[in-house]
Amino acid sequence: MQLGAFSVSLSVKDIKVSKSFYQKLGFAVFGGDETQNWLIMKNGDHVIGLFQGMFEQNILTFNPGWDQNAQPVDSFTDVRDLQKALKAQGIKFASEADERSTGPASFIVMDPDGNPILVDQHV
């Protein structure tokens, strides 16, 4: 199962403090908007998202259709096909993509320990 680019989306208390901390670990701002309380940071192929006031927990994030530089890839498994495959395996969903749609869509599943996993397709 090809889930796409991987990152960790962190729920942070103070985006400026978190940005400074991760810069000390070698991460640089790659995208986002600090004035809107979200940033995407990279260190090599490692990607983290910093999100202040947007969600309660840290989230594992996969982006079908993207590489680790948020660039479209030629071939990928559509988020709706991933959703169907997971449903066939009995996975329960916290939110679902509209399977009649095309293009950008997302779903969320929870792992056995309550960690949210977001599969978020932007293409």
Summarize the structure.
This protein has 123 residues and is an alpha+beta fold.
Please write out the topology.
Blueprint: E1 5-12, H1 15-24, E2 28-33, E3 38-43, E4 46-52, E5 59-63, H2 79-88, E6 93-95, E7 105-110, E8 116-121
Folded structure, characterized:
The chain has 123 residues and is of the alpha+beta class. It has one domain: 2,3-Dihydroxybiphenyl 1,2-Dioxygenase, domain 1. The chain contains two helices and eight strands. It has helices at residues 15-24, 79-88; strands at residues 5-12, 28-33, 38-43, 46-52, 59-63, 93-95, 105-110, 116-121. An eight-stranded mixed sheet has the order 2-3-4-1-5-8-7-6, covered by helices on one side.
Label the CATH architecture: Roll
- Write the H/E string, N to C: EHEEEEHEEE
What integer value in Å does the Rg equal?
15 Å
Strand content: 35-45%
Regarding CATH, which class? Alpha Beta
Keywords summarizing the entry:
alpha+beta, 2,3-Dihydroxybiphenyl 1,2-Dioxygenase, domain 1, 123 residues, eight-stranded mixed beta sheet
